[in-house]
Design goal:
The structure holds two protein chains of two kinds. Chain A has strands spanning 3-7, 10-13, 19-26, 33-38, 44-52, 55-58, 64-70, 73-78, 87-95, 98-101, 105-109. By secondary structure, chain A is an all-beta fold. In chain A, a hairpin with a 2-residue loop joins strand 7 and strand 8 (73-78). Chain B is built from no helices and eleven strands. In chain B, strands 2, 4, 5, 9, 10 and 11 form a six-stranded mixed beta sheet that branches. Classes of the chains: A mainly beta, B mainly beta. Chain A binds chain B through residues 32, 34, 36, 42-44, 46, 49, 51, 57, 59, 88, 90, 94, 97-104, 106, and chain B through 32, 34, 41-46, 49, 87, 89, 91, 95-103.
Chain lengths: 110, 110
Amino acid sequence: SQTIHQWPATLVQPVGSPLSLECTVEGTSNPNLYWYRQAAGRGLQLLFYSVGIGQISSEVPQNLSASRPQDRQFILSSKKLLLSDSGFYLCAWVIAEEQFFGPGTRLTVL
Amino acid sequence: RKEVEQDPGPFNVPEGATVAFNCTYSNSASQSFFWYRQDCRKEPKLLMSVYSSGNEDGRFTAQLNRASQYISLLIRDSKLSDSATYLCAVAPSSASKIIFGSGTRLSIRP
């Protein structure tokens, strides 16, 4: 079956610390993958998307980066977190033109 | 103008009522349209895709109006469990990414 995993589920990090969020998918090959952020009470902001290994498109300039080292793995990183990086981070993929989300990682930067 | 716009609400309606939301989009070349439901602190879940001819799934009906560039969601006989935020989403012709509205909050009262 097709599933999408994200971890960790929640994370509390100090300002200035690094970040690595992982998303993995099962049950398909060469999916389009996406990272979104949802700030408290706000809409979904597309951060990055990837159509294949090593191919990353950035939607919004910021201190985050993304990588796709394997077909089914999509990683969101930061070298130094800011307070404004707090939010709900969602990985998503497209199956038959419909987009499905992982369970998300809730990040709090203190 | 935002690419996808929704009334943020909240819509507060009694159980059993019929409620409708609209969502406008700016790109007339958009190809695919969706409604998602998001519960508090959870990931969005696909409620239904919106087809040109309109579609119905139980108490939920979605319609597309290309001339006026909006999609709608109608919920009949609303239940307490329908309380959630409803996000509309639109895919441009490139199909590389889906753009989300900020969501409409719905609260059903007993």
